[in-house]
């Protein structure tokens, strides 16, 4: 009679005898020098791979600790904000903080405590997922053996827009920027409505915006352009410059101190690369020619790269932007405070600003207190953001439905215990 025991079931698989827990000491010298890792491969690397990067490997007793790197990290933007995030999320993890200086062939060039450049790939979640995708300026948690970016620290600021040609994806142009220079050319590039959109991106970023009116030496009505820019700058400084002669460069340098990160954003041909060379005190960027017909330039800057200057601050020259569409709405109120104030004065809270009685917008348009093109640009930005939010909601709902279908599918196909 079958009693359920293994003896009565000759086909049953017998469990092997338990081995002793005592392990023999390894005779391989590279095992003892391997730094313990809280997460990663179960077995240590082979001797062939253990010496693949000798300059980046060191025994556990001499492994650097990030606290000893504070003076050098501060030179590349480290501050109390990132220190608190590191203590909270990565203390004791065996990782070190590093900052992304640029991307190269699917990998990233990172700055660490020794002022050297380390090239390392990132985990797939930090490259493929738009919500967690790392970019130039990010502070990351780096594993040295082998070099790989494991995670990203919270961003203090981010310069972002809606990705060109995409419905809902946000494109982060640069992270952890302290001062954002919005560059407009005073030859044929000057467009006050475009500057309003740049201001929306700047206020939404969290960085300090500074409006730069470059090529002032080519402008015959500088005072009028300055007045127009001040009307839409929302209190941000407006500085005329000439990258060709160096005029106004000292005024821009006044916003920069050692350890701070500045970025230049603007259309192609406004002189960002030449202005970058002026600010950095040397030829760090190639300069392209500008077409005489329309004043437009080519995309001389095609990548995002952090540049260390002799003065001790960092500079990020962003590629020229053709499509300026904000990805968030928090900067609209600071860019259009006059329009927001007039809307609050309308008699009806749901006023469409058409033919309703007591509409403060219509009254301001009729009297000239509000420029019609400014109000129309405000309406376009609000409409774009509303459509973007609707598409985001639809995408999130679709992702949630797909996730639920996957869960139900897995549950139906799960083997049942008999």
How would you portray this structure in words?
The chain has 418 residues and is α/β, with parallel strands linked by helices. Among the domains are: 60-152, OB fold (Dihydrolipoamide Acetyltransferase, E2P) (Beta Barrel); 158-317, Rossmann fold, CATH 3.40.50. It contains 13 helices and 13 strands. It has helices spanning 29-32, 47-50, 70-75, 80-89, 125-128, 192-205, 222-232, 249-253, 272-280, 332-335, 337-344, 360-367, 372-412; strands spanning 96-104, 107-111, 117-120, 139-144, 147-152, 158-162, 170-175, 179-185, 208-214, 238-240, 261-265, 305-308, 314-317. The chain has a six-stranded mixed sheet, sandwiched between helices. It has a five-stranded antiparallel sheet with strand order 3-2-1-4-5, with no helix packed on it. The protein has a two-stranded antiparallel ribbon with strand order 6-7. α6 (192-205) links the parallel β8 and β9 (208-214). The chain is flat, with a radius of gyration of 29 Å. It starts with 28 loop residues before the first helix and ends in a 6-residue tail after the last helix. 32% of the residues are buried.
């Amino acid at each position: 009679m079958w009693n359920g025991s293994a003896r009565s079931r000759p086909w049953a698989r017998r469990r092997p005898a338990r081995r002793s827990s005592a392990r023999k000491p390894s005779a391989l010298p590279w095992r003892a020098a391997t730094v313990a890792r809280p997460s990663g491969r179960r077995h240590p690397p082979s001797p062939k791979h253990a010496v693949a990067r000798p300059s980046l490997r060191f025994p556990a007793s001499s492994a650097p600790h990030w606290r000893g790197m504070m003076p050098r990290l501060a030179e590349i933007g480290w501050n109390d904000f990132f220190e608190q995030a590191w203590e909270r999320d990565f203390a004791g993890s065996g990782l070190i903080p590093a900052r992304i200086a640029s991307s190269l062939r699917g990998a990233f060039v990172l700055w660490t405590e020794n002022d050297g450049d380390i090239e390392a790939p990132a985990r797939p979640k930090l490259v493929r997922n738009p919500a967690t995708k790392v970019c130039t300026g990010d502070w990351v948690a780096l594993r040295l053996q082998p070099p790989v970016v494991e995670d990203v620290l919270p961003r203090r600021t981010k310069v972002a827009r809606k990705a060109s040609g995409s419905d809902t994806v946000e494109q982060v142009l640069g992270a952890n920027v302290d001062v954002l220079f919005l560059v407009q050319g005073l030859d044929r590039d000057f467009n006050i409505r475009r500057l309003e959109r740049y201001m929306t991106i700047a206020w939404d970023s969290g960085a300090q915006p500074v409006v730069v009116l470059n090529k002032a030496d080519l402008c015959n009505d500088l005072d009028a352009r300055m007045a127009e820019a001040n009307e839409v700058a929302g209190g941000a400084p407006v500085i005329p410059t000439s990258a060709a002669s160096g005029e106004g460069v000292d005024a821009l340098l006044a916003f920069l101190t050692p350890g701070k990160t500045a970025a230049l954003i603007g259309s192609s041909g406004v002189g960002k690369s030449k202005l970058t060379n002026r600010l950095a005190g040397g030829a760090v960027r190639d300069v392209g020619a500008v077409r005489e017909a329309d004043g437009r330039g080519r995309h001389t800057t095609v990548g995002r790269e952090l540049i260390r200057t002799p003065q001790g601050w960092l500079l990020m020259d962003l590629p020229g932007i053709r499509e300026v569409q904000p990805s968030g709405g928090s900067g609209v109120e600071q860019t259009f405070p006059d329009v927001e104030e007039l809307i609050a004065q309308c008699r009806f809270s749901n006023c469409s600003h058409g033919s309703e009685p007591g509409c403060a917008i219509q009254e301001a348009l009729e009297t000239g207190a509000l420029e019609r093109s400014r109000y129309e640009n405000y309406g376009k930005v609000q409409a774009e953001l509303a459509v973007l939010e609707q598409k985001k909601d639809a995408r999130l709902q679709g992702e949630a439905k797909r996730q639920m279908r996957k869960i139900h599918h897995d549950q139906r196909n799960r083997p049942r215990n008999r």
